[in-house]
């Protein structure tokens, strides 16, 4: 019986208003319920205290609220928090809160597992089980906002889609979630504080540009040489660098928003002068900055962080060419919460 009920948060505000009208009620009732579901984050119809008992019961008979549940929370010695999040169908995803003195950032998941097969990423080993719904993405952000207020005394300030999954392979739901996160009826956050990180799906990058989205774009580049990139990110064979470059040029022409390239330097993979030069060339196509991120080992001997001297070579060459570059230290490594480590391992840690 329960399975037949529809997830009420799959309805838009207009659909909810129409539903109430079809029940002989006022469309305004739909607005009230919508506010409870999103802005006030109601977990059950019982919470909706300004809605009559009969109406609440009627909603209960027709719908469910598929709210996520933070199943387990782990805290790293550096303050990073990882949530293992249980979904209504018992699948699990992870999200991370990363605190710094000036901001708190939520790193959220967009899929259960991942549809891509990046060789250096733990999530890739899980394969994609399903896309997350907009409300499941939204709930992760709300959970982290609450934790940020509770543990750090301030609201969440930034969101990055760098958890599990490829956001552009779940495009519609990610965009709907962002719409609610930024809407005054939801969390009212500025889109400028949201970054969608992608391995680079050219068609979807162009679509985002056409839709004139206001959030930021990060691309996990890791190599600007096709053979190298394909060997570590096999989907690059389908979406080669030239197509990516063209899509990024299109993005910038439409949005005027600078792109961030994420890049890990690995020993014997992308640590030669040729690799550095290729990156510098790629960076000249579109205004950008480079985040050199630390490799977080995932128990695979093939990938080893290159020595600091190689990272320094990258920094020197990028800066010499006028390209902004930052070197990012990992956060939350001790609880498998760092980039690329999300693989639902919390249970193993707990026992
Ligand atoms: N699919 C999206 C978002 C998830 S991955 C994307 O590819 O951007 C988030 C970031 O973590 C990406 O930049 C990814 O390349 C990086 N990453 C994956 N595995 C990693 C690892 N083991 N160490 C460091 N960064 C990793």
Automatic annotation (TrEMBL):
Cofactor: [4Fe-4S] cluster
NCBIfam families: rRNA_mod_RlmN
Keyword match Iron-sulfur: yes
The UniProt record lists the keyword ATP-binding: no
MF annotations from Gene Ontology: 4 iron, 4 sulfur cluster binding; metal ion binding; rRNA (adenine(2503)-C2-)-methyltransferase activity; rRNA binding; tRNA (adenine(37)-C2)-methyltransferase activity; tRNA binding
Sequence positions that bind S-adenosyl-L-methionine: 165-166, 197, 220-222, 296
Similarity remark: Belongs to the radical SAM superfamily. RlmN family.
Occurrences of domain Radical SAM core (ranges): 100-334
Annotated keywords: 4Fe-4S, Cytoplasm, Disulfide bond, Iron, Iron-sulfur, Metal-binding, Methyltransferase, rRNA processing, S-adenosyl-L-methionine, Transferase, tRNA processing
Function: Specifically methylates position 2 of adenine 2503 in 23S rRNA and position 2 of adenine 37 in tRNAs.
Subcellular locations according to the entry: Cytoplasm
Name of the featured protein: Probable dual-specificity RNA methyltransferase RlmN
Source species: Salinimicrobium profundisediminis
Additional free-text comment from the UniProt record: Reaction proceeds by a ping-pong mechanism involving intermediate methylation of a conserved cysteine residue.
One cellular component (GO) term of this entry: cytoplasm
Enzyme class: transferase
Superkingdom assignment: Bacteria
One biological process term in Gene Ontology: rRNA base methylation
Details of cofactor binding: Binds 1 [4Fe-4S] cluster. The cluster is coordinated with 3 cysteines and an exchangeable S-adenosyl-L-methionine.
Family annotation (CDD domains): Radical_SAM
EC number, as in UniProt: 2.1.1.192
């Amino acid at each position: 019986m329960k399975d037949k009920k529809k997830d009420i948060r799959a309805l838009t505000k207009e659909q909810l208003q129409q539903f109430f009208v079809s029940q002989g009620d006022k469309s305004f009732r739909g607005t009230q319920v919508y506010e409870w579901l999103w802005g006030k984050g109601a977990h059950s119809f019982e919470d909706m205290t300004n809605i009559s008992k009969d109406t609440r019961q009627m909603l209960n008979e027709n719908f469910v609220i598929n709210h996520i549940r933070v199943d387990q929370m782990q805290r790293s010695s550096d303050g990073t928090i990882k949530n293992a999040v249980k979904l209504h169908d018992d699948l699990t995803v992870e999200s991370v809160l990363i605190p710094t003195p000036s901001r708190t950032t939520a790193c959220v998941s967009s899929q259960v597992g991942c549809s891509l097969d990046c060789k250096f990423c733990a999530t890739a080993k899980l394969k994609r089980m399903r896309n997350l719904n907009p409300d499941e993405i939204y709930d992760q952000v709300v959970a982290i906002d609450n934790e940020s207020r509770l543990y750090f005394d301030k609201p969440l300030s930034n969101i990055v889609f760098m958890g599990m999954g490829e956001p552009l392979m779940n495009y519609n739901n990610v965009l709907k979630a962002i719409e609610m996160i930024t809407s005054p009826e939801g969390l009212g956050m500025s889109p400028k504080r949201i970054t969608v990180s992608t391995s680079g799906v050219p068609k979807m990058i162009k679509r985002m540009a056409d839709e004139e989205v206001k959030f930021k774009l990060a691309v996990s580049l890791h190599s600007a040489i096709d053979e190298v990139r394909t060997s570590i990110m096999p989907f690059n064979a389908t979406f080669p660098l030239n197509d990516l470059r063209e899509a990024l040029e299109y993005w910038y022409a439409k949005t005027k928003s600078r792109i961030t390239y994420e890049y890990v330097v690995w020993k014997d993979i992308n640590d030669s002068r040729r690799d550095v030069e290729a990156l510098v060339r790629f960076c000249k196509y579109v205004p950008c900055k480079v985040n050199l991120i630390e490799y977080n080992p995932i128990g695979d001997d093939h990938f080893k962080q290159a020595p600091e001297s190689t990272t320094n070579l990258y920094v020197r060459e990028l800066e010499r060419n006028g390209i902004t570059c930052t070197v990012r230290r990992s956060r939350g490594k001790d609880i498998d919460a760092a980039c690329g480590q999300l693989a639902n391992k919390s249970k193993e840690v707990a026992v």
